[in-house]
Amino acid sequence: MERTLSIIKPDGVAKNVIGEVIKRFETAGIKIAAMKMIQLTKVQAQGFYAVHKERPFFGSLTDFMTSGPIVVMVLEGEDVIAKNRKLMGATNFEEAEEGTIRKDYATDIEKNVVHGSDAPETAAFEIGYFFNDLEIQKR
Ligand code: ATP
Ligand code: MG
């Protein structure tokens, strides 16, 4: 069993697709082990995206991520990191496969509706950034 961190970004919340995104996870057999809605501060967004701090889009990305509430979830299941990335689609929605969340709802490369951890190490860091052990359901 594997875990990953999923975020419905401010644009996804604003577009009223929280339910649609969660429905896709549940339909794929993915379990939600933790969930909350929060609004990040700039410092919190910078900490979360620290791996991107040298990238030209870091300032814009962290402004965007603080621009409204987000829904943060721990997803659980077999091979869930890769499964979630597949449901999300490519970073750039124009390159995303048909039927993916980003293809269906993203409007630009930055405002791309969802985040998903990309490896076991980043998943562990990202889950710990938002949730403590007591907040994650055990099965
Ligand atoms: P995420 O980490 O959010 O799941 P990702 O792994 O597909 O997305 P990353 O390369 O980690 O993509 O980039 C993190 C986020 O930074 C992207 O999801 C997007 O919101 C933003 N981003 C990435 N590349 C660009 C770019 N060239 N211009 C503007 N924003 C970008
Ligand atoms: Mg990433």
From TrEMBL:
This is Nucleoside diphosphate kinase. PROSITE patterns: NDPK, NDPK_LIKE. The active site is at residue 115. Residues 1-138 form the Nucleoside diphosphate kinase-like domain. GO terms for molecular function: ATP binding; metal ion binding; nucleoside diphosphate kinase activity. HAMAP family: NDP_kinase (MF_00451). NCBIfam families: PRK00668.1 (NF001908). One of its GO terms (cellular component) is cytoplasm. ATP binds at residues 9, 57, 85, 91, 102, 112.
